[in-house]
Amino acid sequence: MLPAGGGRVEEKMHHQKIILVINIGSTSTKLAVYKNREAVINEVIRHPGQELEVFHDTWDQYEYRKSIITGFLEQIDIPLQRFDVIACRGGTVKPVPGGIYRINAAMLQDMKSKAYGSHPTNLGSLIAFRLAQQLKIPAVTVDPPVTDEMSLLAKYSGIPQIERRSSFHALSQKSTGRKAAKILGKPYNQLNLIILHLGGGISVGAHQKGRIVDVNNALNGDGPFSPERAGSLPAGDLIDLCFSGKYTREDMHRLICGKGGIMAYLGTADILEAEQRINNGDEKAGQVFEAMGYQVAKEVGAAAVVLDGKVDAIAVTGQLVHSQRLVDILKRKIAFIAPIYLFPGENEMEALASGALRFIKGEEQAQEY
For a FRET experiment, which of 24, 238, 277, 301 has its CA 20 to 30 Å from that of 10? Predict the structure, then answer.
């Protein structure tokens, strides 16, 4: 999407820190160009299935995705040499504390090994790293999904063979925490916050003086159910379902992540469709929606306990914040805990750019992986 009025974007960016942001998904490539904190370009490029199916593995898409990125920049007349830094969404690496990290060879090696899982965003890190090498500029990632600042007590599950793990919307939550801190007029690392990311997956984090000391695993079955994820389940019944002979291991994983939650109950993960059904008198849809809000509120209550009831604010972000119905459910149940601040929509590209700007201006040091 070209800026209003067309013309050379480069002319608008003189004497500014120019940031390229890359976020690769399974069927899309998100690109953004920031002039300091201002988004000059924000584009989502969709990839047809027939173009992707020829690749055996995500890593095989390197030249294809790289050419998409460089071709788009040529189309909008921004030379690569104009960038000061490249920011990329974090990938599947070992658990690390939150912060800014230089993308380096060790990080890429862990991604390629698949020791910590696999995700298309890993490819974005490789592209960012190689482009940055070519341009002799830094490539960074900010608050990766594996950010782990959980307290030791929070990692106990109840049986030694299973440890609770940190896997959630760290980038979104940390960015939202900084926004809330600005409103409150205090540094993020001096506040106790409960932060909710409400999207296809839902995470609720207890932020204690700048560290996320407890949070539900929003990917692999923990916390409230969401539009497409099952959340926490009764363990005994889950075991029985696994051994019922009706489902494979892969089937069960899909039930937990992808086909669980609202999708499992209503056959859709589309919140707008679910709300339309409620408006048309669908009582089941109404109950499911209310139950999701109920479970999210319970998780907020648990986070308040983690913080000993000393909560400065509750901040809520993600696409589901656009649902007034869900917001009303949450306000009714959790407003007594602390003031609530709403930050609707996704903020990943903005958060990545903001972190890269802090790094390039020397306001925050990058950590080495």
Answer: 24
